[in-house]
UniProtKB/TrEMBL annotation:
Protein name: Some similarities with Saccharomyces cerevisiae YDL145C COP1 Alpha subunit of COPI vesicle coatomer complex, which surrounds transport vesicles in the early secretory pathway
A GO cellular component annotation in the UniProt record: COPI vesicle coat
Gene3D superfamilies in UniProt: 1.25.40.470, YVTN repeat-like/Quinoprotein amine dehydrogenase
SMART domains xrefs: WD40 (SM00320)
Topological category with respect to the lipid bilayer: Peripheral membrane protein
GO molecular function, one term: structural molecule activity
Amino acid sequence: MKIYTKFHLNKENVLASAMHHNRTCVLICLTNGIIELWDYRMSVLLQTFTDHNGPVRSVDFHPTKEIFASSGDDSTVKIWSLNKPKPIYILRGHLDAVRTVFFHPKEPWLISASDDQSIRIWNWQSRKEIACLLGHSDYVMCANFHPRDYLVVSASLDSTACVWDISKLQKQQSNPFYNNHQGNLTVPVKNILKENIFSDIPPKFTMDEHKKCVNWASFHPSQNLIVTCSDDNEVLTWKYTSTKISLANRYTGHTGPVTSVVFHPLEKYIISTSKDRSFLVFSLTTHNTIKKYGKNNKRFWHLSTILNRNLLSATTDSGVVIFKINKDRKVFSIDQEKILLLNSSKQVEFRAGKYGATYGMTLPYASLKSLCEEGSSFNGISYNTLHHTILVNNTKNIYFKIRLPENTYSGIEPNIIISGTGTMAKFVNNDSYVVYDEIKNQIYLYSIHDKQLALIKVNGDDTLKNIFVFNRDLFLLYDSGICLYNLTSKQIKMNLDLECAKEVILSKNNKYFAIRNKYSISIFDTNLKLISSTEVKTKIKSFAWNEDNILVFSTQSHLLFMLLNAETGIIKTINGTFYVIEVNGNNVLYMDGTDFFSEIEIDLTECYYKKSLYNNDIACIMDTAENSRLVGKKIVADTSEAGFSNVAINFTDDSDLKFNLALKSNNLQVAHDMAVTLDKKELWSKLTSHAIIQGNTELTETCLRRQGDLEKLSFLYLLCGSKSKSKELESYAYAKNDPRCLFQYSIYYDSPMTRINSLNMLGCYGLSYLVAKVNGDCDRMKKILQSANIKEDDIVWPDNKNLTDSLIKKPLKNGFKNWPLKPSTEGANENFITRY
């Protein structure tokens, strides 16, 4: 048995903790009155809740709502939202410290246990107390609901534990006394319950075998069992029926008071914590201690579990520890449509079924309990279809070759053909198998008749973690890399510098290998040439190929896909344990934390759409975009990013987005239409630049007129030689009385008269006289001297008196037309798009 720590928070004065049923969140309560919400996967503090006056003794998440409850030494029970640092409301009624608080799994009820010797049940929706259970004569240390039945179990310092039947409470809540006509209560609900149920009713069962204070009591999640623990250092289990209860077994091993005890949610274990600085794992079948575990020589105080999850939370003097016992992933081997599984009872059974149907459970073929110690497991299993034989290896470095019977017999002892020293044993094909001996650091190749065929020496500088067999090739996975060994040539083919690889799988068409480590996946061809790789932020749990070379993989919270070009995406969100076994079409065969396989149907539309973008398959792109349920923005973003803006433009009605896509695809007409619709200056500016690049002078003129940029517009007319249009600008400048524009036009179009007029408007009479004299306009010269009241001798001539030529003699092009573009031949893709 191995303990795997998932989260460890070093924090003093932690009293209790509770894990969320679906999210990777944990609540911890402290002695200073503070409650903290942590993401135990990312080790991040999410929220702090402060309102208790004194130590917080207990917290509990609601099974489905985004709320939680807390209780403490201030005698109150408080209901909180996960998003607010202050409580929603407070439940008052207890007279002393409240030790524990728990939600009912189905009803809107809340149960609290207090030092005032009472147990109270509340309706958290109506915010009222609906029942008070009296019967203990000392502090009530805990009280909790049964996961299915209407029962309550409690533990007290009076050395007893009690079971209470609250089925009448459920009946009264679901069918109170109503008025036949108006549907109103004739008597208040609380009064009915107080008078008719709990006023004089004692506990249904009392468990009094403990010699000292009872600290905790818990129901078994599926069996009629109760476990209790006490200051007498013992753990007791009780078996009950509808009429009686009896002591089942005693578990000893602790040397100090036992503070908390629970049943494992999935396995046949009991886990207990103690002040002797350890927690113990007991077997429900053999009643022996399987594992003793300590954490930094600190005392353990509290345990909590999640239903149907291999996950436990413990509080110690040093903080909080979240852990699981053994791995969730069961040992199995898959062959075509048959799955060979080693179940939790260490029995070999087949799961058979076709895709789309349920993988049914068969009777066990053999029981391997005698080959493995209690609490430990097998490391692997390999199945030979032809000889109906399996290879298994346990944690004691021993392998077994076992022939399975032809028919199923429950509990039959295994028919061991041969056994020996070996950490790993796997079939190469129907005629041979390999065994790795970690002690000698060697790999042996045997025939099916157990004759040694070859001996392979393993690199002694590194530890061999796993072996994967494909045809006659062995993938040897080390911490530092991967070694590919060919059994035919008996030589190393290649070494890969890929650290900490976990698993290797071959695609269904035998063309690609996928190798995963903790946070990344790499895809190689058969020559082990890297094709692509991707990294994720959370741990990768499993992966499998489908028939179209799409890799489906799972993390702690999502099911994702990966393409050969490293493109990834989320298929769906998952809760709990999810190991992908095989993918066939839109069906995923997976295994959860139990012994059962299931299938789910997934939607790979987005995946195939991205694949068609990668392969430039326009027909598939258009078909998917038109007929799928993909969100329009997603199609537009992916298609545009892949370089198909001309396709993406057809699948959006957003004018801004359509304008940008039109510019990317050089569709100036659509861009112009969108610019007219939106009429934004920045859009006209962008369109102007693209129109100039394509030599579209007509569209450039339109854009510049929309912007009112007469300076650039006049320069455009100059370049194109459009004198008629420039005259329009000149008239417009006269109308606006704009001498600056007039002077610029006179330079562009060599108009002395306009130049003289613009200079006169500016009051530069000397300059206007010089221009008139250079151009031989005597009448204009006299008018200027008279208007300015100056003489010709007062005017200073420039040094270069021969400056008579215009700055620009002729335009670059005569005629206002679009510039010619280089002709191009439409390809198949453009012809296809045109039809749409």
